[in-house]
Amino acid sequence: MRKLKFAVMGAGHGGKAIAAHLSIKGFDVNLYNRTLSRIKPIIKMKGIELEGEVNGFGKLNVVSNKAGEVIKDADVIMVVVPANGHTYIAEVCAPYLEDGQVVVLNPGRTCGALEFLKVLRNCGNKKNVIVAEAQTFIYASRGMGPVSAKIFRIKNAIPVAAIPSNKTGRVLEMINKAFPEFISATNVVETSFNNMGAVFHPSITILNDSRIESTLGNFQFYIEGVTQSVARVLEAVDNERLKVAHKLNCGSVYSAIDWLSMAYNVVEDNLFDAIHSNPGYVGIMAPRTTNVRYITEDVPMSLVPISEFAKLLGVETPVIDSLINIADSIFKKDFRKTGRNLPRLGLEGLNIKQIKDILIRGKM
Question: Is residue 362 part of a domain?
């Protein structure tokens, strides 16, 4: 049986980790990055050194800033870039994606697969390409240098769904050959609204803003950054997210505590204890600046679409809306305008039934 060929789009810490891990597992792997300077050391070394839960050197085949070279003949394209880069990746891939290729967003954040597929169609790609999204990233990882990455923890179960949902089985049939940790979600509503980055990242970063700036992130993000009061804000954001998801009534949604149990085998009665009992969070330092994807990605690509759906459904989300407003003030931007709002997703003016037909059945 022919080995699967993978293309990894993005050479940040996650992209480097997943590319090296796939290679160590014995798969043929190509790697793309938008800027050539980031991947020049990888080209020179012909691979990436991986440490942590997985140790070894992952030899890569094609390493390039030309998308066509990287995705040519690849069976699975693993997109590992911040969600605000999904549109760009879709645009550069659109001329080259062919029938039967599978694109997996790692992760999609909220409505990532929908946005990616919409951009492909807008760019004129009508091929039978399956676009799927993972609910969260498979690793807790960090970059350790230009040609190295560290996996602190491999999560136990990562739900994945495709548009349309009846293609999810085909996606898993392929990617489970490399990663048995990926499991089936009911649909992309489930993966999008079980997006835990929306719960954890913006709240912890914004509420630790002063500490991040004064210490340049010299503290453990989850272990020291989540005090009892911060945990209560996280719980409020989580409850608002759950209300919106339950109103949509599409698949299973679960609390942040349930997710920590599923992903990390952490079982506690409250969110503060669950976070502090998770060994996967130990050693993960805070960002050195608040100009970080925990805000610049997770606010427009996670919190904004949740808030947009809330308004459509008549659900109040005061804490989520406050976080968006604070982020706007910090960055002097309008994240609602630049984020995944209903017009950007092609959902403006549609009713809930029509939106569900698009998200679940792919009726675009």
Answer: no
